[in-house]
Amino acid sequence: MIQAALFAALFAASASAELVRMEPSVNTFSSSKWLQESNKNQRKLEEKISMMFVLKHDKLAIKEFEKKLLDISTPRSPNYGKWMTKEQVVEAISPKAEAVDTVLQYLHNFGVNATKVNKYNDIIKVTMNVELAEKVLSTEFSKFRSVSERNVAIYRITKPYFLPEEIASHVSIVDDIMRFPTLKTPIMTYGAEDTAGSEFAACGADCNGFTTPAVLQSRYGFPTVSSATSGNSMSVAEFQFQYYDQKDLTAFSNACDVTVSVEDVQGGNNEKLCERGGCVESLLDIEYIDAIAHPIPLEVIYSGDYSLFDWVNTVMDSDSPPLVNSVSYGNDEIQQTSNEYMEECNTQFMKAGAMGISILFASGDQGVWGRTGASKTGTYNPDFPAGSPYITAVGGTNFQTKSEIGTESAWDCGGGGFSNEFDTPSWQADAVSAYFATASAAGVLPDAKLYNAGGRGYPDLAALGGQTNPYCVSHAGGSFSGVAGTSASCPVVAGIFASINNERLAAGKPSLGWLNPFIYANPQCFNDVNDGTMNNCYKGYSGFAALNGWDPATGMGTPIYSCLSAAAAAI
Q: Which residues are catalytically annotated?
């Protein structure tokens, strides 16, 4: 422990330095979903918190890196699939060693020794007590408790945070201190239908009328994977007490005549919490990605808090990162997601793509209005990370005719729209331009004041996820219910691309990596969805219509496995 007098002197020196306000665009330090607790119930000296100092990257280096990523990810490029190594990524964009040393010394001056620098030298994870964190960041923390999950409490700042000018010149953001996670609640349906077609009854009477692995295989045409190619892998990300239990995986496997198993877990697991039905979200992810792609090794990456940086840092610091990663979580861009935060997340996603890693995010279950909600006088609220150009966003559909495998419509609650932070990327420009021309001619474009027409459009593609035929999921120790949402769509699409990777690796080819240029180069490989509108289920409110070609309701459409497989084999 540092001596009190020396500590006081160091702190005084730090406090006298010119301070810089970090993430100045954020001015909200509360959430209606989290209640601030009384200070008398808090023990700031004893309780520990973890945070991440995310270091700045050179802007010119990032631009060059972006060009390199686009080159090696574009199917027509002679450099397609020449993925970079960790060492090459570090050399290309990592901050200089002096920046890391300066920030570490600043922390050490406060007696903070519980530090870990990631393999790319751009994230420093630290742990300290709350009282000390207030001094390090010149701010105040308070404990907040979830309104819906009373056993979940977190520490967050209640006013802006600051760093000395010298430190701020190297640090872009400090994460896990300000953003409030959205505790995800699955959309559930209890009670199966009395009658339904054969594929809809493939998991037994308790799931009759629900979407099953057999329904998905019939619609999208993916094969049963016979064996996993060496080096192939996939993962699902889980947060906020979303664990899994073997009893439910076994029940699902037996009922649906598939094999579902988890190869590895990072972050731990607590099966007891699943006995009361609290693991529906994670069980949905695990049961469906593995029903499609087993025996490709499946890893569950768990974090107690919803922290994108903690998750992506875990993935990227792995000796063998999963090649396909499915994430069914997100927030709105305006929910304390500063420009710096989104741009730094974007850099992490770019790093993953450059190394041949695919990242897929669900596009959200609140339509164009997002989690913030609908307002006739406001604007649409695009999703993040779905609006990032360097992840693949997956939207949701329904069958046009209930319990009949065939043409799909846009799910009216599926997330989609245009980012307010990221511009329309080059690989998407033609598709977006065609959509605006078609929608304008049809007279179905929403008021231009509601969205950013120059933004990155999402989703990129879609899969079944709506409530017409919800997914059959085993939870609470073998009970079956219907679960809906793009949280179902995302692991399905991830499993399909993991299966295509399996074929490429078996043929001696590299993984597909960052998927978006490949997707937009092959529009013929998707079932075009040109029916329905996503408007957050609000009657009388506007939204984007699904039309011919790409649209911000269902992207390119839903996957045709045989075509995607052939297109991937050809490059």
A: 281, 285, 487
